[in-house]
Design a protein that fits this description.
By secondary structure, this protein is an all-alpha fold. Helices cover 73% and strands 3% of the residues. It has twelve helices and two strands. The protein has helices spanning 2-14, 29-42, 54-68, 72-81, 92-114, 122-161, 166-193, 197-202, 204-228, 246-253, 257-273, 277-293, and strands at 236-239, 242-245. Strands 1-2 form a two-stranded antiparallel sheet. Helix 5 (92-114) packs antiparallel against helix 6.
């Protein structure tokens, strides 16, 4: 492929190419949707150390690139520029960047075939992807991995406790469909708006959506903690002939106080020491084990 690119560059320098018979075809929303679907299903399959998921993006864009570049040398060069390092969140980054990249390639193909100066060059296309992939991955990971998937899990937990297979399948199916749908929307948004699409994702409106989802996620975590974290005390004592049960007293003050204290302690540990889940689990097991051994919990 590198030899083909060098050959193409040598030919262009030697003599101008007549692009009358190499005009690009029109790229439609259907083409963008197909590119997104290809990226969605191929995302992690060709994952490699030096390029990460760049081969998945290249494969996703192949039908569009074939419609834009009719000379094999131009097509080979297009493949080559998309096989550079690329990694991002599947829907927020992958969907948006697939659409934006398609829009940039359309602009480049029109410049190339019309004889205009090439302003949409290789550096512009790659720098656009590189500039967006990290920022959009941060948004996607915080919303999808940090909030939305746990909402699906929280919904399905009662079914799982009842022994229903739906409890295991619903989070997987629901989260997959969610990413498929929003990724399609972002791909079309990116294609329609080009590089300015990123402003829609990091603007004030989207920040409001992110904050709302974060608050919803906190509510869901609170529901999960209250429903599925069980900590109680068996302590009881008799005073003046009357029995006092510590757990009943705590429940009269604030039901679920001990589970709340336990969850809050783990949260504070993560804030102070970082998200080291293994150490937190081991420490919590030891502490609760000791308290249970002496009859406090």
């Amino acid at each position: 492929m590198a030899e083909a690119i060098q050959t193409a560059q040598a030919e262009e320098q030697a003599a101008p190419v007549d692009y009358a018979n190499y005009q690009p075809e029109e790229i439609t929303k259907k083409d963008v949707a197909l590119a997104w679907l290809r990226f969605y299903f191929a995302d992690e399959i060709p994952h490699c150390f030096d390029k990460y998921i760049a081969p998945a993006l290249t494969w996703a864009l192949m039908p569009i690139l074939k419609k834009l570049y009719k000379r094999k040398e131009d097509l080979a060069a297009a493949y080559q520029r998309h096989l550079l390092f690329f990694n991002t969140a599947i829907a927020w980054g992958g969907g948006t960047i697939t659409g934006i990249t398609a829009a940039l390639e359309v602009a480049r193909a029109k410049e190339l075939t019309s004889g205009l100066p090439i302003t949409v060059d290789d550096d512009l296309i790659y720098n656009t992807k590189a500039g967006l992939m990290g920022a959009l991955a941060g948004i996607g990971d915080s919303i999808d991995s940090g909030t939305v998937q746990y909402i699906f899990i929280a919904i399905a937990l009662p079914w799982a406790q009842e022994g229903s297979a739906l409890g295991a399948l619903f989070p997987f199916i629901g989260f997959s469909l969610y990413q498929l749908i929003i990724g399609y929307y972002f791909a079309q948004l990116g294609f329609g708006l080009g590089r300015s699409a990123a402003n829609e994702l990091v603007g004030s409106k989207m920040q409001g959506v992110i904050e709302a989802l974060s608050i919803l996620g906190l509510f869901m975590m609170g529901v999960l903690a209250a429903s599925y974290v069980t900590v109680s005390s068996p302590l009881a004592f008799t005073l003046s002939g009357k029995e006092f049960v510590i757990q009943d007293i705590l429940d009269s003050i604030l039901p679920g106080l001990l589970p709340l204290v336990t969850v809050s302690a783990v949260y504070l540990y993560f804030v102070k020491k970082g998200l080291n889940v293994t150490k937190a689990l081991l420490g919590l097991t030891v502490i609760l084990g000791v308290l249970a051994a002496v009859g406090i919990l």
